[in-house]
Amino acid sequence: MVCSQGNLASLxxxxxxxxxxxxxxxxxxxxxxxxxxxxxxxxxxxxxQSTTEVIEKNGKGVNNTPDGVTYTGFWRNGxxxxxxxxxxxxxxxxxxxxxxxxxxxxxxxxxxxxxxYIGGFHKNKIMGKGEYVDAxxxxxxxxxxxxxxxxxxxxxxx
Length: 158
Prior knowledge:
Elements (H helix, E strand, L loop, with lengths): L7 H19 L3 E7 L5 E8 L5 E10 L5 E7 L2 E9 L5 E7 L2 E9 L5 E7 L2 E9 L5 E7 L7 E3 L3
Antiparallel strand pairs: 1-2, 2-3, 3-4, 4-5, 5-6, 6-7, 7-8, 8-9, 9-10, 10-11
Keywords: Repeat
Protein name: MORN repeat-containing protein 2
Organism: Pyxicephalus adspersus (African bullfrog)
Protein backbone atom coordinates (compact mmCIF):
# COMPACT_ATOMS: atom_id res chain seq x y z
CA MET A 1 0.00 0.00 0.00
CA VAL A 2 1.29 3.45 -0.87
CA CYS A 3 0.35 6.82 0.61
CA SER A 4 -1.09 9.45 -1.71
CA GLN A 5 2.25 11.22 -1.34
CA GLY A 6 3.79 8.29 -3.16
CA ASN A 7 5.83 6.31 -0.64
CA LEU A 8 5.41 3.72 2.08
CA ALA A 9 7.50 5.68 4.61
CA SER A 10 4.99 8.55 4.51
CA LEU A 11 2.15 6.11 5.10
CA UNK A 12 3.94 4.58 8.09
CA UNK A 13 4.68 8.02 9.54
CA UNK A 14 1.03 9.02 9.16
CA UNK A 15 -0.20 5.79 10.78
CA UNK A 16 2.22 6.18 13.69
CA UNK A 17 1.05 9.76 14.31
CA UNK A 18 -2.59 8.67 14.25
CA UNK A 19 -1.86 5.79 16.66
CA UNK A 20 0.11 8.07 19.03
CA UNK A 21 -2.75 10.60 19.03
CA UNK A 22 -5.32 7.87 19.71
CA UNK A 23 -3.16 6.43 22.49
CA UNK A 24 -2.77 9.87 24.09
CA UNK A 25 -6.54 10.42 23.96
CA UNK A 26 -7.24 7.01 25.56
CA UNK A 27 -4.38 7.03 28.07
CA UNK A 28 -5.79 7.31 31.58
CA UNK A 29 -4.82 10.42 33.51
CA UNK A 30 -2.72 9.85 36.64
CA UNK A 31 -4.06 11.42 39.85
CA UNK A 32 -2.47 11.66 43.29
CA UNK A 33 -5.01 10.78 45.98
CA UNK A 34 -5.47 10.07 49.67
CA UNK A 35 -8.33 7.66 50.23
CA UNK A 36 -9.93 5.71 53.09
CA UNK A 37 -11.65 2.49 52.00
CA UNK A 38 -14.81 1.14 53.69
CA UNK A 39 -12.74 -1.66 55.32
CA UNK A 40 -10.49 0.96 56.97
CA UNK A 41 -7.52 0.61 54.60
CA UNK A 42 -5.87 3.88 53.66
CA UNK A 43 -4.07 4.61 50.41
CA UNK A 44 -1.98 7.57 49.40
CA UNK A 45 -0.45 7.62 45.97
CA UNK A 46 -1.06 7.48 42.27
CA UNK A 47 -4.17 6.15 40.60
CA UNK A 48 -5.82 6.26 37.21
CA GLN A 49 -9.43 6.59 36.16
CA SER A 50 -10.55 4.50 33.21
CA THR A 51 -13.06 5.51 30.56
CA THR A 52 -15.67 3.55 32.56
CA GLU A 53 -14.98 5.80 35.60
CA VAL A 54 -13.24 2.99 37.56
CA ILE A 55 -10.41 4.28 39.75
CA GLU A 56 -7.46 1.92 40.27
CA LYS A 57 -4.15 2.15 42.09
CA ASN A 58 -1.55 2.63 39.35
CA GLY A 59 1.93 3.98 39.99
CA LYS A 60 3.65 4.50 43.32
CA GLY A 61 1.74 4.50 46.60
CA VAL A 62 1.42 3.49 50.24
CA ASN A 63 -1.40 1.27 51.53
CA ASN A 64 -2.02 0.73 55.26
CA THR A 65 -4.49 -1.72 56.80
CA PRO A 66 -6.19 -1.25 60.19
CA ASP A 67 -4.30 -4.29 61.56
CA GLY A 68 -0.90 -2.72 60.82
CA VAL A 69 0.15 -4.18 57.45
CA THR A 70 1.85 -1.60 55.23
CA TYR A 71 2.81 -1.82 51.56
CA THR A 72 4.99 0.86 50.03
CA GLY A 73 5.75 0.47 46.37
CA PHE A 74 4.38 0.18 42.89
CA TRP A 75 0.86 -0.75 41.77
CA ARG A 76 -0.63 -1.81 38.46
CA ASN A 77 -4.35 -2.39 37.89
CA GLY A 78 -5.07 -2.13 41.62
CA UNK A 79 -2.53 -4.82 42.62
CA UNK A 80 0.98 -4.78 44.04
CA UNK A 81 3.20 -5.00 40.94
CA UNK A 82 6.85 -4.06 40.61
CA UNK A 83 9.24 -3.29 43.45
CA UNK A 84 7.84 -2.78 46.93
CA UNK A 85 8.10 -3.37 50.65
CA UNK A 86 5.44 -5.19 52.69
CA UNK A 87 5.70 -4.95 56.48
CA UNK A 88 3.64 -6.91 58.99
CA UNK A 89 3.09 -6.00 62.67
CA UNK A 90 4.71 -9.34 63.66
CA UNK A 91 8.01 -7.95 62.38
CA UNK A 92 7.99 -9.93 59.13
CA UNK A 93 9.10 -7.86 56.13
CA UNK A 94 9.31 -8.65 52.42
CA UNK A 95 11.19 -6.28 50.16
CA UNK A 96 11.48 -7.08 46.49
CA UNK A 97 9.51 -7.78 43.35
CA UNK A 98 5.75 -8.36 43.23
CA UNK A 99 3.46 -9.62 40.49
CA UNK A 100 -0.32 -9.51 41.03
CA UNK A 101 -0.06 -9.19 44.85
CA UNK A 102 2.44 -12.08 45.12
CA UNK A 103 6.14 -12.24 46.01
CA UNK A 104 7.56 -13.02 42.58
CA UNK A 105 11.10 -12.37 41.40
CA UNK A 106 14.06 -11.43 43.57
CA UNK A 107 13.49 -10.33 47.14
CA UNK A 108 14.39 -10.49 50.81
CA UNK A 109 12.01 -11.95 53.38
CA UNK A 110 12.88 -11.18 57.00
CA UNK A 111 11.18 -13.41 59.56
CA UNK A 112 9.99 -12.08 62.95
CA UNK A 113 12.92 -13.99 64.56
CA UNK A 114 15.39 -11.90 62.54
CA UNK A 115 16.30 -14.78 60.22
CA UNK A 116 16.03 -13.91 56.55
CA TYR A 117 15.98 -15.38 53.07
CA ILE A 118 17.50 -13.51 50.14
CA GLY A 119 16.83 -14.87 46.68
CA GLY A 120 14.17 -15.99 44.26
CA PHE A 121 10.42 -16.20 44.79
CA HIS A 122 7.77 -17.71 42.54
CA LYS A 123 4.07 -17.06 43.25
CA ASN A 124 4.66 -16.46 47.00
CA LYS A 125 6.98 -19.47 47.35
CA ILE A 126 10.71 -19.48 48.00
CA MET A 127 12.12 -20.78 44.74
CA GLY A 128 15.55 -20.80 43.10
CA LYS A 129 19.03 -19.84 44.22
CA GLY A 130 19.23 -17.99 47.47
CA GLU A 131 20.71 -17.58 50.90
CA TYR A 132 19.12 -18.17 54.28
CA VAL A 133 20.64 -16.36 57.24
CA ASP A 134 19.40 -17.94 60.45
CA ALA A 135 18.81 -16.18 63.78
CA UNK A 136 22.37 -17.16 64.87
CA UNK A 137 23.73 -15.38 61.77
CA UNK A 138 24.82 -18.62 60.06
CA UNK A 139 24.62 -18.31 56.26
CA UNK A 140 23.15 -21.19 54.25
CA UNK A 141 23.41 -21.04 50.44
CA UNK A 142 21.87 -23.18 47.76
CA UNK A 143 18.79 -23.87 45.70
CA UNK A 144 15.43 -23.64 47.40
CA UNK A 145 12.20 -25.32 46.31
CA UNK A 146 9.37 -24.00 48.50
CA UNK A 147 10.15 -25.64 51.88
CA UNK A 148 12.94 -27.94 50.61
CA UNK A 149 16.62 -27.17 50.05
CA UNK A 150 18.30 -30.52 49.30
CA UNK A 151 21.75 -29.13 48.39
CA UNK A 152 22.00 -26.44 51.04
CA UNK A 153 25.54 -25.59 52.14
CA UNK A 154 26.64 -23.78 55.28
CA UNK A 155 28.93 -20.84 54.53
CA UNK A 156 31.38 -20.48 57.41
CA UNK A 157 33.31 -17.30 58.07
CA UNK A 158 36.84 -17.94 59.36
